[in-house]
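Deviations from the work plan: none for this task. Representative record:
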Amino acid sequence: MSTSVLYDAPGPRAKALNWVYSGVTLVVLGFVAWLVFSKFNETGQWESEKWTPFIDADVWNNLLIPGMIETLRAFAVGSLLAMVFGFVFAVGRLSNLKFVSIPCGIVVEFFRSIPMLLLMFFIYFMQPSLGITPTSIFWAVVLGLMLYNGSVIAEIIRAGVRALPKGQEEAGVAIGLTSGQVMRTILLPQAVRSMLPAIIAQLVVLLKDTALGYVLGYSELLNQVKQLDTNFHNLIPAAIVVAVIYIALNTVLGLVATWIEGRTRRVARTAAPVGHAGAVDPVADEAALAK
Amino acid sequence: MDLFSEYGSAILEAFLLTLRLAVFSGTFALLLGVVLAVFRVSPVPVLRWIGAAIVYTFRNTPLTLVMFFALFGLVYQLHIYGPPEEVTLSLSEQNFWMAVLALSVYTSTFVCEVLRSGINTVPLGQAEAARAVGLTFSQNLRLIVLPQALRSVLNPLASVIIAMIKNTTVAVTIGVVTATGVNEASGQMRTMMENEPNQIVLIFIIFSIGFMLMTLPVGFLAGWASKKFAVIR
């Protein structure tokens, strides 16, 4: 453990002290748990009719699963668009042409610096004056997600490209590739590979941000808490169940990120003798992974 | 510019409320974040587990849900202010403090992770030297490691604070208002867009500039401070 340097391996006295501290902490924790329990008791949160809805298939079929689907739909469309937006604006901002790179930079910095909720409200209320009726809540949510997270992903990709050794670009230019070809065939593949964990971390943020759709009345997971409360008067159990669903979804995404991180590190190691990841045959790499 | 003559003072009040929300939440988030970071690096396993559990839970739950739970769960269901008939706080104060609670707890987990990464940037020799001269864990952390860690994470810490300032808009979930009934910035923007459908672009620009005026100084200040207080190694 990296932080264990802060203290020595505990001797007999420190061990005893640690036990005391652990004991005190557990007592405090127990007290807090008792406080929560009795508060729940007092306000009747343990009543079985508040919890039994969650073992009812209809509740899952009619409320929770549709909510999950709506959340995942906004996530899927939003993250796809955010990736496209991120790619376009990262490449634009890295362009040698000032009249491309400067506007792209302004767009990215603007969307990064204002709250996403303002963007969603703006897109939502803008639709009637653009002649779009009926007003779509879904697209207000998804486009808001795209503009903010896309800008962040653009910066992640740009950072990835700039972190590459200068020789990569120079070698590409030296063998006669155009700057577009250098970007497409040499820089971007390496940058995306090294930045994939950061991009997925941003997708976790995007998944959490779909909950902002609640404010606009989008029928995602959080809105189902309200529906459950209307039907069963069980706001607390419903909020707990939905929080657990969010945490589970994010954990899955996190595991994907860790898996990819391990995978890319393995690639970098095998490629070490030539100094860059591009030398590895992706087919051979797949095969190596399958073993 | 009749937009300003009609809404000028409301916009100002809205941003003052947002600022108040940000100042309180930021202060509590930094304090709580330091406590969580100390928990996570402490020699007591139970404390480490508690720290990790809190951070994992709140980092993976949407702020909107945390905010929602703070008001509708803690106040309306669990009566944390006490039984409803005995509460003397006004409705606007109740909602304000619940928004502060949600924002500070949520943000503190991010502060904690930034601090922890800062602790990792402090060279091993520093902590080892501190231990060699006989400092205890808490002295080591308080006098040697945390001051250096803090100075090296000023920039990422500023990013967390900037994100928090932008996240104050999520308070619209529970409706945070001033005593005179003016919403915080995002709620005020929504009201104005509903009332003035012909001036939506202008309204959006006004509120965007308002947020930039709050976030940009934080970024510049952090950039300047991180140079001034940089640990020279």
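Chain A is about 80% helix and 0% strand.
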